[in-house]
Every structure is written in structure tokens, then in C-alpha cells.
Specification:
alpha/beta, Rossmann fold, 2 domains, six-stranded mixed beta sheet, about 35% helix, elongated
Length: about 325
């Protein structure tokens, strides 16, 4: 983790390209953008930063990413500094939406668009959603996750692993838990990995696997937690199911590289990939749209589930050939 006492600049990218001609109508080349990451050491957040940088290169912008390191107070300070620096746009994944409202209002007064990642607010211009952070349809990813487990283990027993008290995480836990109960599964325990590390998840689930020896599945809010659960499951002598085989089903989320490798090796059942790389690109697309007067309220990045059945088709994010014109996003 990065110390809170000195908020670190994690990525600064400057590029001038032909994608956006400043002399053309609506041209926005040369803009300076700020992004506040909730915890930049998390692999998916690092991918999001890579996506920001790729989009910045395409647009000819400069992006500075600062780390709130799971501190709402630090994030408020980050955004206030960005406003003082008169950036052209602000992106952030809000740790505490209520605490951010004052800063959002000041940004609006300064005519600075604010793009929330899985975050909303009265003065948030647009929100870029991970598809699996929405629970508004029957095919929502975490509803699908519950149905997958219920199909493989009808009436099964499930451990739910949540995380830090971030609204989007809490919403995901509720989405899965409600769908699991509706599908006939029994949630025998819900524990939060508030430290957001694999080591802590392993320690937490070691005790749980001792108490619930006949558990059928573990649903984890992210891959670090799922991988920690996998480690303690194997130490407890349990097999990891590929989703159809015997053993305990362990599902994660974020599409982290370690999780992809674990699926290939049979140490993890699957992961929901939110496409954090495309998310970073979409934040800049939303700012560009706002500057041109064509913004939408919601941008939803498509999520994909990886498991044994399709893992051979996986491509690294940087190899997917994304541009701002073809990122997998729906606009609502």
C-alpha cells in the first residue's frame, strides 16, 4: 500500500496525437485530467490506469493518477487539489459518496465534469459502470453467478466473502446474496475481507473451512479474496471444482492475472472480468463527451466470466486492440 501521508502520483502520461485535432470543431487536445484511485495497488485499478493512459495517448491528453489508499478523507483532498489545479476533468471511484458531495459541487461550479467509476452523486456528470456492479436485470453477472452455483450444487451451502465498506462492494454482496437465496442456496456465513489482501482472506477462510467442512461454494467479491480462500481450501484438503467437477466452487471477480493463471492451473473455479482496462478508457471517453456536449448519464462496460470452458480464449487487456471507438461499452 502507498502511505497516506504523501499521496503519490502513480501515473503521468503526456502525448500528442492526431486523434483529436485542437483546430477542429470540438477539439480537446492537450487537456489535463485528474483521477483519484480508491486503492491503486489493487491489480484491477492498475489495469484501469493503463486504460486511462492509452486513451490519453489517443486523445493527446495528460492524466495524473493519485492514490486515496482506501481513505475517504484522502480522496476528498485529492479532488479538492484537482479543482485548485483547474484540471479539465476529474474521474474517481468514490470511497464515500456522501463525503464527496461538497467537492462534486465545487467541481460543477468550476465547470469541471466529474466522472464516477461505479459511483453516483447529485453533481456527478456521468458514471462508468462495471457490468457486474449492476443488479437491475435477470442476467446481471452476480445473479448469473448464483444461478451457476445453484445449477452445479442444488440447495448448496455457500460462504460469502465481502470486502471493505465501499458502497459498490456492499451492493455486489447484496446482489449475489439475494440471488443465491432466491435460487435455493443457503448462505452459512458472510465475512468481510476488510484488509483487501489474499493473506487476510486465507486466514479468515481457514477458520471457516474448519467450521463449515461441507460447504459447497465460496463467492468472493474480488480475486485476491478468492485466491486466499483457494489457498486455505487446499490446505484443508479440499478439491477446487472447475464448476462441473467435484470439490468446492470458488468464484472471484476482477479478472486479475493471478486469477486467470489460477483458473488455468485448477486452483480457482472462475472470475468475473469487469474489463478494467476498457473502464479506464471509458472514463476519458465520458470526459471527452462532456466537453463536446454529448455526454450520457451512464456508460456500462461489459463483464465476462472466465472459467475452464473458455480460458483458452483469454487475451491480455493490452492485446485486445481497443480504441475509444471499439471499447465494449453500452451507453444509457
Amino acid at each position: 500500500m502507498i502511505a497516506l501521508g504523501a499521496v503519490a502520483v502513480l501515473a503521468v502520461t503526456a502525448a500528442c496525437g492526431d486523434a483529436d485535432d485542437p483546430e477542429s470543431p470540438g477539439g480537446t487536445s492537450g487537456l489535463k485530467i485528474g483521477y483519484s484511485s480508491p486503492v491503486a495497488s489493487q491489480p484491477s485499478q492498475a489495469l484501469l490506469t493503463d486504460g486511462l493512459n492509452l486513451a490519453a495517448k489517443e486523445l493527446g491528453w495528460t492524466v495524473s493518477v493519485v492514490d486515496a489508499n482506501l481513505s475517504p478523507d484522502a480522496q476528498v483532498s485529492n479532488v479538492q487539489t484537482m479543482i485548485q489545479q483547474n484540471v479539465a476533468g476529474i474521474g474517481l471511484w468514490a470511497l464515500d459518496a456522501g463525503a464527496m458531495e461538497g467537492a462534486y459541487a465545487r467541481a460543477k461550479d468550476a465547470n469541471i465534469p466529474v466522472i464516477g467509476v461505479n459511483s453516483t452523486g447529485q453533481n456527478v456528470t456521468s458514471t462508468v459502470w462495471w457490468g457486474f456492479n449492476l443488479c437491475d436485470s435477470e442476467d446481471a453477472p452476480f445473479k448469473q453467478a448464483a444461478k451457476q452455483i445453484a445449477t452445479a450444487r442444488p440447495g448448496g451451502k455457500v460462504i460469502v466473502m465481502g470486502g471493505p465498506p465501499v458502497p459498490s462492494i456492499q451492493q455486489n454482496v447484496k446482489c449475489f446474496s439475494d440471488a443465491a437465496t432466491a435460487a435455493g442456496l443457503t448462505i452459512v456465513n458472510q465475512t468481510d475481507n476488510t484488509k483487501d489482501t489474499s493473506a487476510e482472506a486465507a486466514a479468515l477462510t481457514a477458520d471457516l473451512f474448519t467450521k463449515y467442512k461441507d460447504v459447497d461454494a465460496v463467492w468472493a467479491y474480488n480475486d485476491a479474496t478468492a485466491l486466499g480462500a483457494s489457498t486455505s481450501a487446499q490446505q484443508a484438503g479440499l478439491m477446487i471444482s472447475d464448476g462441473t467437477s467435484e470439490g468446492v466452487i470458488i468464484q472471484g471477480a476482477n479478472g486479475d492475472s493471478d486469477a486467470i493463471e489460477a483458473i488455468k492451473q485448477g486452483r480457482l473455479t472462475g472470475t468475473w472480468d469487469p474489463d478494467a482496462y476498457a473502464t479506464g478508457m471509458c472514463v476519458l471517453k465520458a470526459i471527452d463527451d462532456a466537453k463536446k456536449g454529448t455526454s450520457s448519464k451512464n456508460y456500462v462496460v461489459t463483464a465476462k466470466y472466465w472459467d475452464k470452458s473458455n480460458i483458452a480464449d483469454y487475451k491480455e487487456p493490452a492485446e485486445r486492440g481497443y480504441t475509444l471507438a471499439n471499447i465494449p461499452v453500452s451507453v444509457k
